[in-house]
Design goal:
With about 750 residues, the chain is an alpha+beta fold. The chain contains 19 helices and 23 strands. The chain has a six-stranded antiparallel beta sheet, with helices on both faces. Strands 8-7-11-10-9 form a five-stranded antiparallel beta sheet, with helices on both faces. About 20% of the residues are buried. Its EC number is 2.7.13.3. It catalyses: ATP + protein L-histidine = ADP + protein N-phospho-L-histidine.
């Protein structure tokens, strides 16, 4: 703009100078005419004309001189007025130019003006200060915009550059640590105005929010691991401890110092370090390692530890560290040694007494007494083992609930974050947190399941059911996972009726499909059934790399994974097929596998056919959850004694356009509304509430007051068949923790559209 005003002022100055020159020339011409007329009059008297003619001629000449003089005076006045107007215009132009410069200088942002050829005309001091801070002279007027950008990159003024199609302009990180956003606006003459706005405070605020979210996620992960009764750590490739839980820190913390960040050689005694070194070298070579060692604590106590090392691979397949899981098996070891010693003593004594049986009847009676005493001790040992098993069962029930509560809340908050619109970096962080929670959930779920199966906590609930719903739901669930990995999942439906536990059978099929997707690089996966006389053969086919024949029996062992050479690393623990083996033995179903290297594998489970019982009134087994088409302002009550769960559930449900009321108890709900008359579409209730209150009792009290009972979704971490049957008899929907947001949304949509009751 400043350059355009200067050109206009110069044009006006040239026009006035030209006008002044023309007036001066005209004035000079008139003077010459006047002088010529005077000379002519004076010279005419020498010719001595007639007096009257001479007088008349002089009068005419005088009149002409007077007119020319008046015209000359008027032109001189106009010239003076023009000079005054020109002076005023110059003063106004200078004032306007100064005001414009002051306005540009007063702008808090960096300001740069380019002409129609995109060459620098003017900039303010804020823009020039960026260059001076970097130790570089600001660009001179006339510098092309391309050259200016190249100079900024070359001299180090610009450290980072970020752009996004949805952003208003490009964002730069300058050498002084400040963030600026560049916006460009064209001028009317074809030039360009560029503003550099300082957004450092906005960037710092955004970074603080991200750091806070990551710290909250890390806190939840640490809470989970600190409550696991095992020593958990992560060791980098340089053998330094990068993470450990409280149990690990309590055992290996020497003199009250945390082992976190220390090299293993500084954490373990030299003797123990030398014993561990071969196993660490093996895991850093890419192998899973499990072994047992006797260790001595800082106070001299001896413990027997079962160690498992699992390598961690990066995206390129390189080992960047390994996970450490250590379980204290001292008591189990002592019990085993005591039983072994008791059996050895018993066998030795039986042989001694048998040799002297012939003539030593009295000694025989004594031997019988001793054997009876040994048997009593064995019975006592058995009772002690059963009590230990019962204690383990109670612990598993408690740990399932306590571990899954914060994990459930984290899952809900992460799902709500994924539905919000952030920048690409923030969305990447949210996806990373969600992936980490998936890994933690899978790890904890798998470890708890293995422990429950070993402890005999899980009891099969064998009934006759139609395979149609089970297979449809599993196929729908894994089809999206397969597409995400670039695979095709084909599904052959079946309406066969089988005798089994539907949830445990679904777990077997899910583990088959998870392995197929994990190890199949490209191609397709097939899920289907084949009838064989009085059985159904349920199979999962894949086009993966196959399994060597001598490894087929090893894949069902705990922490055993068969990974082909060159295949990408995965985060599994090698427990999926071990769980399949334990469940199939519990159900009495035969599991087989056949494989051809380079072509693929087939995993099969053989399930007996069954016969459906007559349907109970009010049930509709053929109905499937409908595809979610929006909840459209559904009114939902959430009852949970955990405030974090309430907050997370409210965030997720309101993101689905639901009207949500949360309460920690029935009394809390009554303080907010009248449960008997307030409108509600679905009630979400946690089974375990405070003060020995259950969600079943709360919803019973609510529906007992209402004219029309509201549909209920009961949420719990209790997996017992008794509770499942109880909820089924009440006509409620049962969901286990941690709740999957997609499954919850599908269930709510189904309940609202179909009237709520799904039958037992």
């Amino acid at each position: 703009m400043n350059g355009g005003d200067t050109s206009w002022d110069e044009g006006r100055d040239d026009e006035r100078d030209q006008r002044i020159a023309e007036l001066e020339a005209e004035n000079e011409r008139l003077r010459k005419i006047r002088d010529a007329l005077i000379v002519r009059v004076e010279s005419g008297s020498s010719h001595k004309p007639e007096p009257y003619a001479a007088f008349e001629h002089s009068v005419v000449l005088a009149e002409q001189v007077r007119e020319r003089t008046e015209a000359l005076n008027q032109a001189m006045e106009e010239l003076k007025d023009s000079n005054k107007a020109l002076s005023r215009a110059r003063e106004e132009a200078e004032t306007t130019r100064q005001r414009l410069s002051d306005a540009i200088e007063s702008i808090a942002d960096g300001f740069v003006l380019f002409d129609h050829q995109h060459r620098l005309i003017q900039s303010n001091s804020r823009f020039r200060s960026y260059w001076r801070h970097a130790g570089v002279n600001p660009p001179e007027p006339g510098t092309a915009i391309v050259d200016m950008k190249q100079q900024a990159l070359t001299c180090g003024l610009i450290v980072e550059e970020h752009s996004h199609p949805d952003s208003e302009g490009v964002v730069f990180l300058l050498s002084n640590g400040r963030w600026v956003q560049m916006t460009e606006r064209p001028t009317r003459e074809g030039g360009l105005v560029v503003l550099y706005s300082d957004i450092t405070d906005v960037k710092n605020s955004e970074m603080a929010r991200r750091i806070k979210a990551l710290e909250e996620s890390e806190r939840w992960i640490r809470v989970v691991t600190d409550h696991v009764p095992a020593l958990i750590a992560y060791v980098g490739a340089d053998l330094t401890i990068q993470f450990c839980n409280k149990v690990y820190e309590a055992w290996y913390g020497r003199r009250g110092e945390s082992p976190l960040g220390k090299h293993l050689v500084d954490v373990h005694s030299p003797e123990l370090y030398e014993r561990l070194m071969p196993h660490m070298l093996e895991v850093l070579d890419g192998h899973n390692v499990t072994f047992e060692f006797e260790e001595t604590g800082e106070r001299g106590e001896e413990r027997y530890m079962l160690r498992s090392y699992v390598p961690n691979f990066d995206e390129q397949g390189d080992i960047i560290g390994f996970f450490v899981l250590i379980r204290d098996i001292t008591e189990r070891r002592k019990t085993a040694l005591a039983l072994e010693q008791a059996y050895d003593n018993l066998e030795r004594r039986v042989k001694e007494r048998t040799a002297a049986l012939t003539g030593l009847n009295n000694q025989l009676r004594q031997e019988i007494g001793e054997r009876a005493a040994v048997e009593a001790r064995l019975r006592d040992a058995k009772l002690e083992a059963e009590r230990a098993n019962l204690s383990k069962t109670k612990f598993l029930a408690a740990v399932s609930h306590d571990l899954l509560q914060p994990l459930n809340a984290a899952r809900l908050f992460t799902s709500a974050l994924q539905e919000q619109s952030f920048g690409p970096k923030a969305e990447g962080l949210v996806r990373s947190v969600s992936t980490s929670l998936d890994d933690v959930e899978n790890l904890l779920g798998t470890l708890v399941d293995i422990s429950k199966l070993d402890a005999g906590v899980i009891k099969p609930d064998v009934t006759a059911f139609d395979l149609r719903d089970l297979l449809n739901n599993i196929a729908r669930e894994f089809r999206q996972m397969a597409v995400a990995e670039g695979l095709t999942l084909d599904f052959v439906p079946s309406s066969a009726v089988v005798e089994s536990d539907s949830q445990l059978l679904a777990r077997i099929l899910r583990n088959f499909l998870t392995n197929a997707i994990r190890y199949t690089g490209h191609g397709r996966i097939l899920l289907g059934c084949r009838r064989q006389e009085d059985h159904v053969l349920m199979q999962v086919w894949d086009t993966g790399p196959g399994i060597p024949g001598d490894k087929l029996s090893e894949i069902f062992q705990e922490f055993k994974r068969i990974r082909p050479e060159g295949a990408p690393a995965d985060k599994g623990l090698g427990l999926g097929l071990a769980i399949v083996d334990k469940i199939s033995r519990m159900l009495g179903h035969e599991v087989t596998v056949s494989s051809t290297e380079g072509r693929g594998s087939v995993f099969s489970v053989r399930v007996p056919l069954g016969k459906l019982l007559p349907k109970r009134p009010g049930t509709d087994e053929s109905r499937l959850p409908l595809i979610d088409q929006g909840l459209g302002g559904a009114r939902v009550w959430v009852i949970d004694n955990d405030h974090a769960i309430c907050e997370g559930m409210q965030t997720v449900l309101e993101g689905w356009d639901c009207q949500v009321v949360t309460a920690v108890s029935l009394a809390d709900l009554e303080r907010q509304l009248d449960p008997a008359s307030s409108p509600v579409d679905v009630i979400l209730a946690d089974y375990h509430l405070d003060n020995d209150e259950t969600g079943v009792n709360v919803v019973a009290a609510i529906n007992g007051r209402r004219q029309t009972p509201a549909p209920v979704v009961m949420i719990t971490a209790n997996y017992t068949n008794e509770l499942k049957q109880h909820i089924r008899d009440l006509g409620h929907v049962l969901m286990n923790k941690p709740v999957k947001p997609l499954k919850l949304r599908s269930t709510l949509n189904h309940l609202i559209r179909c009237g709520g009751r799904v039958g037992p």
